[in-house]
Amino acid sequence: MPIFIFLAKAMSKNEIARQRCEQLLELAAKNYSADKKLSLRYVTLARKLAMRHRISLGGKKFCKKCGTVFIAGETLKVRLEPKNKRVQWICLQCGAKKSFGYSKKQPAH
Ligand SMILES: [Zn+2]
User: Fold this and answer.
1) C-alpha distances out from residue 27 to 34, 35, 64, Å
2) Rounded CA gap, 99 and 21, in Å?
3) Using CA atoms, how far apart are residues 50 and 48, in angstroms rounded to an integer?
4) Percent of the chain's residues with pLDDT above 70
5) How many percent of the chain have pLDDT more than 90?
6) Burial class of residue 43 in the structure, from the number of CB atoms within 10 Å of its CB (0-12 exposed, 13-18 middle, 19+ buried)
7) Which of 6, 47, 68, 100 is the most buried if burial means most Cβ atoms within 10 Å?
8) pLDDT, mean over the chain
């Protein structure tokens, strides 16, 4: 079945790219305190790679506005809004805010 082979190949390629993206983001986090420019470069590379392979990076690992990798307490401030059951993430580099809901129950599928 050629179509299945094609799909399997496409999937494994994407899987490799996704792993590479994660590695790049890990490196970005590791190198942030030592070399911010290098860290930013890793994030840029990961984003480009993700774009090329149409992978979603989720936007929880780095700031979409300035590209700074999120490190809790260092580049990221997390604020809980229990009233709305929302979490607000604030990038300490550019001040961009991102909020999303949190709940212990996963929506049923
Ligand atoms: Zn930012």
Assistant:
1) 11, 11, 17
2) 23
3) 5
4) 93
5) 68
6) buried
7) 68
8) 89
- The residue with tokens 């260092």 is 74
**108 has a pLDDT exceeding 80:** no
pTM more than 0.85: no
CA of 9 from ligand 1 middle (Å) equals 36
- What is the Å distance from ligand 1's center to 2 Cα? 45
Sheet holding 76-81, edge to edge: 76-81, 86-91, 97-101
Cα–Cα nearest to 18, from 63, 52, 55, 70 = 55
The pLDDT of residue 27 is 97
Q: How far apart, in whole angstroms, are the C-alpha atoms of residue 25 and residue 43?
A: 6
CA 38 to centroid of ligand 1, rounded, Å: 16
